[in-house]
Amino acid sequence: MALTIIQIPAGAGANFAYLVFCPDQLQGVAIDPSFAADAVLAAAAERRVQIAVVANTHGHHDHTAGNAALLAATGARLAAHPADGTTPDLPLADGDTLNVGNDHLTVMHTPGHTPGSVTFVTTGAALTGDTLFVTRCGRADLAGSDVNHLYDSLQKLKALPPETVVYPGHDYGPRPVSTIGDELRTNPYLLCADRESFIKLRLG
Ligand SMILES: [Fe+2]
User: Fold this and answer.
1) How much distance in Å is there from the Cα of 114 to the middle of ligand 1?
2) Ligand 1: distance of its center to the CA of 140 in Å?
3) pTM more than 0.90
């Protein structure tokens, strides 16, 4: 059975935390606990899910703020890409898999917003962090950002099956989730004809 994904609003910056779990084995991964560690724990307890891993899409504080509380409460291991300056228990690289009960998440390295940004992909869904939002994309003007890398990462996301559901790191769009197909039709950052026009739109 496919992984179940619970989207949890977190904090004043319209973040989303996620609980991703195997409905058969009741093993889960908490992704970007943000400011909602208690809500993630409650969502897991309600479903009798054991959180084995806390994973971050990238190292920004608004995504990692709940890591310590969640790790302490669960004994889980921390998974993240080391390029964002952290020292996780499980350093992630492109193509790695994180087992979640009977299923798994595949790590897609999607740098640009930060050097260590990743997207977690499973059958029919992608958790895109601050790389891709509903009708928007992540900022590329921050310390560590690289607009060329962000363009390349978005091309990788565009190649996912169109029915893939997009679970973003913030609620910045007209609805909390989307699909790759809908984003291909409506997201101005994905509709850019070439790299040059993307850079102009993103940094202009
Ligand atoms: Fe961010």
Assistant:
1) 7
2) 10
3) yes
Average pLDDT over every residue of 134-156: 98
State pLDDT tens for residues 78-112: 999 999 988 999 999 999 999 999 999 999 999 99
49-74 mean pLDDT: 98
**Number of domain units in the chain:** 1
Please tell me the distance between residue 83's alpha carbon and the centre of ligand 1 in angstroms: 14
- The CATH number for 8's domain is 3.60.15.10
Reduced to 3 states, what is the DSSP secondary structure of residue 195? helix
CA of 75 to the centre of ligand 1 (A): 26
> C-alpha distances in angstroms, 118 versus 86, 108, 150?
14, 6, 11
Cα of 179 to ligand 1 centre, how many Å?
Answer: 21
C-alpha 145 – ligand 1 centre gap (Å): 10
Q: For residue 159, give its domain range.
A: 4-203
Other C-beta atoms closer than 10 Å to the C-beta of 99 total: 14
Task: Give me the amino acid identity at 203.
Answer: L
